[in-house]
Design brief:
The chain is α+β, with helices and mostly antiparallel strands. The chain has one domain: VC0467-like (3-Layer(aba) Sandwich). Helix content is about 20%, strand content about 30%. It has six helices and ten strands. Strands 1, 2, 3, 4, 5, 6, 7, 8, 9 and 10 form a ten-stranded mixed sheet that branches.
């Protein structure tokens, strides 16, 4: 079955990759991933809805000997994926940009992985919207394309309200709701998946 909202090129940069109820990899069960990059060389994304108990942003700033921001807006660090789990990434609005900031998702958001963005955030000069992730999710050339064909994922439009909202537990259901119809009800009634797709 064709993926909802997949682009005509087949690439899904700037969209949300949403695990179906049939996802067999326990690491990605009920995940929502923002696709920073997807092309013929591979894909990179950040899981948006798996908040880490530790380190919190404040703990991470302290570990890096940076005074944490005082506004308290950034309360959680998320698990971005299994690749480079010790490396930090900040997905953020493009009102902040450095020379080392990559414009991602069709130039809709920025991705910065340097300590300087944390220092700027600490002094109130960072982006207005940000999510701090440890690790990322990566796919080799053609790997994600095959997974999409196997119906392990849905593809839905991204919006900043969902990306940066700290209601992590609700992001998967909210993402599924974007599909509409029976598919939009899967989060509330996973049993409908087998009748919709013929898979358990």
């Amino acid at each position: 079955m064709a993926q909802p909202d997949a682009s005509s090129s087949g690439y899904i940069s700037g969209k949300l990759l949403v695990a179906t109820p049939a996802m067999t990899d326990p690491r990605f069960k009920h995940t929502v991933i923002y696709m920073c990059l997807h092309d013929d060389k591979g894909a990179l994304g950040l899981v948006l809805n798996k908040a880490l108990a530790s380190p919190t942003p404040a703990e991470l700033f302290q570990q890096l000997d940076i005074d944490p921001p005082t506004d308290g807006d950034l309360r959680f660090t998320v698990w971005g994926g299994p690749v480079e789990p010790e490396r930090g990434f900040v997905l953020h609005s493009l009102d902040y940009k450095r020379d080392d900031t990559a414009a991602v998702g069709g130039d809709k958001l920025g991705l910065t992985a340097s300590l300087e963005i944390l220092r700027d955030m600490a002094r109130g000069a960072g982006p207005t919207k940000a999510i701090l992730a440890l690790g990322h999710s990566g796919w080799a050339a053609g790997q994600l394309d095959r997974e999409l064909q196997e119906s392990g994922w849905f593809v839905v439009p991204a919006d900043e309200a969902l990306i940066f909202d700290e209601d992590y537990d609700g992001k998967w259901n909210r993402s599924l709701a974007k599909l509409g119809g029976k598919l939009g009800q899967l989060g509330n009634d996973p049993g409908t998946f087998s009748s919709t797709y013929g898979r358990a």
